[in-house]
Amino acid sequence: MMNPKHNLLNDDEPFKNLKIDDWAILNDIDQRSLCPVCKKSRKYFCYTCYVPVNELRGRIPNVKVLPIKIDIIKHCREIDGKSTAAHVALLAPDDVNVYIYPCIPDYDQSERELPISRAVFIDSTWNQSRGIYKDQRLRALPCVVLESRVSQFWRHQKNSPRWYLATVEAVHQLLVELHAATTKDEKYQGQYDNLLFLFHFMYSKIHDLYEHEDLQAYKRPLK
């Protein structure tokens, strides 16, 4: 299977070689319904409770047994409906937790050692992320640098190159790289690609409405 990093450099068919389930079922949802938890009106899923609407319960992917736990620290001003952190929490509920800043867990010192057991992501605009990262509770954690990967996120942010990833893209990229680093004899078989299930669907919906080259997000520089 092609490395997703290289596959997503292709703007023509960026998801072509990824193992993402067919999301045609989502096209059958033509009206909003109540979240089974908070009872607020939602379409497809609740982006605050991280559960699907009743009509989709048991019919969307559940990405089980991630190799590490994922914590997402979400900026309090990040718009829930525009954040892709909800995608990760919804599709891998057993291994993902979302916290609203300034709520940050107390991380065990042993979790910083190799092999890592947990990764922490900041979910915000790039300008907002700097403020969260200055928090000493996070600055004390070691950082990793992901390989460059061109983002397919349709949400435009000024002064950011296209390799600034959406949260769900960054989580997916880390898991793919972690697999390559820790299981050198086992080729990646797309087991984490369904984390992009909702991302792929929404990308397609956006591109049904707009031409790719007309969207500002895809005019960002590649450097």
TrEMBL record:
- In short, the EC number is 2.5.1.25
Pfam entry (one)? DTW
This protein's GO cellular component annotations are:
nucleus
State one molecular function term (GO).
Answer: tRNA-uridine aminocarboxypropyltransferase activity
Q: Which GO terms describe its biological process?
A: tRNA modification
Compartments where located: Nucleus
| Broad class of the protein's primary localization | nucleus
Q: Which reaction does it catalyse?
A: a uridine in tRNA + S-adenosyl-L-methionine = a 3-[(3S)-3-amino-3-carboxypropyl]uridine in tRNA + S-methyl-5'-thioadenosine + H(+)
Is the keyword Manganese assigned to this protein?
Answer: no
Key word Transferase present in the record?
A: yes
Membrane-spanning segments: none
Keywords, sorted A to Z? Nucleus, S-adenosyl-L-methionine, Transferase, tRNA processing
List residues of the DTW domain.
42-211
- Physiological role: Catalyzes the formation of 3-(3-amino-3-carboxypropyl)uridine (acp3U) at position 20 in the D-loop of several cytoplasmic tRNAs (acp3U(20)).
| Similarity-based family | Belongs to the TDD superfamily. DTWD1 family.
Q: Give the protein name, as stated in the record.
A: tRNA-uridine aminocarboxypropyltransferase 1
Could you read off the lineage of the organism from its UniProt record?
Eukaryota, Metazoa, Ecdysozoa, Arthropoda, Hexapoda
